[in-house]
Amino acid sequence: MNDIDRLLEVAKERKALLFGEFILSSGNKSSYYFDGRLLTLDPEGSYLTAKCFLPILYKCSAEALAGPTLGADPIVSSVSTLSYLEGKPVPALIVRKEKKTHGGGRNIEGHFYEGQKVAVVDDTCTTGGSLFHAIEAVEDEGCEVVKVLSIMDRMAGGSEELKRRGYDFESLFVADDKGEIRITQIGAQ
Length: 189
Description:
Layout: H1 3-13, E1 17-23, E2 29-34, H2 36-40, H3 43-59, E3 64-68, H4 73-85, E4 92-95, E5 108-109, E6 117-125, H5 129-140, E7 144-153, H6 158-164, E8 169-175, E9 181-183, H7 185-188
Parallel strand pairs: 3-4, 3-6, 6-7, 7-8
Antiparallel strand pairs: 1-2, 4-5, 8-9
Helix pairs in contact: 1-3, 3-4
């Protein structure tokens, strides 16, 4: 079994992917629920997520991986750790919900520099709100967003808006309105 197939299996085993009737934070109803943190905080899920994302980052020449807290925290950490073990380090960056009002007043935690090529990731893309927040923070620091990623694209408008604004967006999994989950072409690579 390849890594992406196993990742989907782990999502189901760890109950990160559930089927039934759910009310989302947007108030919309859904026939499935994906909780990325249950997947990315699991040791095997974290490792497989990193293994699936890392080749994508190398291919787009990302020099860092940023994501909005809290959904992306385990993703950027596991990807960064695995990249170090592979001898091609990709630093992790965490984008705060709000800029710090004390200390250095940082909006992004981690080491970055102006002009750096950064990929932005979140566990799920629904409307894209948290991804757009992270993208804005990264660009405000003078970095270039070279790729936008998620584990699950709910196909609820966010990915379309990211692409419309010119961002190179890809996800490992896509869900349709019936809750059928499929592995994307990028995930299958």
